[in-house]
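Hi W., the magnesium ion complex you wanted:
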Amino acid sequence: MADEQYWAVIPAAGSGERMGSDLPKQYYPLCGKPLIEHTLDRFCTHPRIKGVVVAIAEHDRYWRELKLSYANEVLFVTGGAKRCHSVLNGLKRAEQIGRAQDWVLVHDAARPCVRKEDIDRLLSVLADDPVGGLLALPVRDTMKRSQSDNTVCETVEREGLWHALTPQMFRLEPLRRAIEAALAEGRLVTDEAQAMEFAGAAPRLVEGHPDNIKITSRADLALAELYLRQQAQEGCG
Ligand code: CTP
Ligand code: MG
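Structure:
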């Protein structure tokens, strides 16, 4: 469709428990500015993304300190108890300004290194897809399943296994409905694709770049800085 519209929803309402600090990880300094600003840069300057909705925790004291001035519209909503609730709030807000069948890219605030070329690949690969899909990485290591005492109970066949990354791109209303239906059944989906899967759809996996890491622990910060510097040198990102 020539007049396709794209929106982004950025869940940023987590507390970053695994970082073990009071400062939520999305506000950690990274290459001289808060982590979330790197993430927002990628979406708020993207020529095909019309607007960005950010989900912020209810008592977030840091969001208003950010100095944001972007060409694309940035709106915020209050997040919820789990990532899926935050995303749902963001989708509802996006539906107020967008159209039911517009595409929406849901992207973790905690993934500041996503490349523009990866976003562009997602847009182009999924352009004619009836469902949508997600950036993903094929699993490289041999996979083991453990029992409770951390001894191996089986080796899991790696063939066909992928890491699910973000952005995940679906159409606004179908995604909002799929998440609502999952929640109504008590399923706290951990990504958008899982909600679509529960709705009977088969999201498409689009191979992304391995530097699109999710900041989870402190060790990831140094790696993210390395990737961001590398991207700046390569003139991408
Ligand atoms: N997120 C959110 N609302 C929640 C929980 C998470 O918007 N209730 C967001 C986070 O801010 C993050 C993304 O979802 O950008 C991915 O979640 P995760 O990496 O798990 O972040 P946290 O939940 O903040 O970290 P932790 O699980 O260690 O507490
Ligand atoms: Mg979490």
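Residues 11-18, 25-26, 55, 79-83, 86, 108-110, 214, 216 surround cytidine-5'-triphosphate (ligand 1) (CB under 6 Å).

W.
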